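Backbone-to-sequence.
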């Protein structure tokens, strides 16, 4: 699989944005009324949308040349499931332990969870035990659809993605996904348009046409997305919406950023900061664990006590929150997530070995 550092750097930026967004809630709860984080951090909840765009891009990368191949399809399914579940289950059981030890601490404002559905990451009408895992339910749906696409010829992928997108746009233009049962809410939600946008970008990236795009156009696209697209999204508060307009607008703007940076990296015109790349590597661990870490620091803040007339307690605990999230993320990635992924990769290579193709003889031609 080709490694694009721009994608990892964007993953890192996305997860830091999500952490900042949730840090604002902790600050509001424990600061005693004074706030340092501005309302601007509401924008950063769109880090999840950026994850969806990147996910679509990556799915095209990992499946190139592997369509209509039963062994490769099994490898794809195993790799996707092993990427999602083991790390998620760690935080499921940690959260479950906290819930059993201290009832009323977890998800107190969102009602009880269906433990079996939460464990399996299946759609249901209750909040998941690990609240941020709602996005993983969407990811699993995207993976399921992409698995189905692997049974077709690879050259038909653009048409199939287009049909998926057209169907979603048509449905969401005429009906409301919220009127359906939990499973259909996932299947019909326009979030998939962001995943499709990422997939379409990857198809363009690997096509012969991408090399013909003038570098000046690439830079212009990136600047328009950052200097016009981001302010418009914030100005219209699209992060508070869940409908078609948000998904199309955010998908277009974030897609422009992802595609532009990938092209600029290929042309060796940018270098992604190492810190963001490493944060991107551990972004899944950070995403799953950060609410627990923030909760611990929040309770520490509560014990110390707020200083309503001083901003220094805010500054101290906000820095402590971010440092704790990153330090825990680095340790958990190094000693749990990465070893599990390495084991899964080795197991997949042994179990789903791809037989080398036999050279054709003259009689077989």
């Amino acid at each position: 699989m080709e490694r694009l550092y721009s994608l990892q750097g964007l993953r890192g930026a996305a997860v830091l944005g999500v952490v900042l967004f949730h840090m604002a809630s902790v600050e509001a709860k424990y600061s005693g009324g004074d706030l340092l984080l501005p309302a601007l951090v509401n924008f950063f909840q769109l880090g999840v949308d950026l994850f969806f765009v990147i996910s679509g891009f990556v799915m095209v990368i990992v499946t190139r040349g592997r369509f209509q191949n039963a062994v490769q399809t099994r490898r794809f399914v195993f790799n996707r499931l092993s990427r999602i579940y083991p790390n998620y289950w760690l935080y499921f059981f940690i959260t479950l332990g906290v819930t059993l030890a201290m009832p009323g601490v977890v998800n107190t404002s969102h009602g009880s969870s269906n433990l079996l559905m939460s464990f399996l990451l299946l759609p249901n009408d209750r909040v998941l035990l690990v609240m941020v895992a709602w996005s993983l339910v969407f990811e699993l749906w995207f993976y399921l659809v992409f698995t189905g696409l692997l049974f077709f010829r690879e050259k038909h992928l653009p048409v199939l993605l287009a049909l998926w997108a057209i169907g979603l746009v048509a449905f969401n233009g005429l009906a409301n996904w919220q009127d359906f049962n939990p499973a259909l809410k996932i299947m019909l939600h326009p979030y998939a348009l962001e995943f499709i946008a990422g997939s379409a970008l990857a198809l363009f990236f690997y096509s012969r046409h991408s090399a013909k795009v003038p570098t000046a156009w690439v830079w212009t696209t990136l600047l328009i997305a950052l200097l016009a697209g981001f302010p418009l999204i914030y100005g219209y508060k699209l992060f508070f919406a869940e409908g078609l307009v948000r998904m199309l607008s955010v998908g277009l703007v974030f897609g422009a950023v992802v595609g532009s940076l990938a092209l600029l990296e290929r042309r060796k015109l940018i270098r992604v900061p190492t810190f963001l790349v490493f944060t991107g590597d551990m972004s899944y661990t950070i995403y799953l664990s950060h609410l627990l870490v923030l909760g611990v620091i929040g309770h520490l803040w509560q014990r110390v006590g707020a200083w309503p007339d001083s901003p220094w307690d805010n500054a101290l605990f906000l820095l402590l929150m971010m440092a704790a999230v990153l330090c825990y993320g680095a340790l958990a990635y190094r000693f749990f997530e990465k070893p599990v992924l390495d084991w899964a990769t080795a197991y997949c290579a042994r179990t789903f070995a791809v037989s080398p193709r036999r050279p054709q003889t003259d009689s077989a031609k």
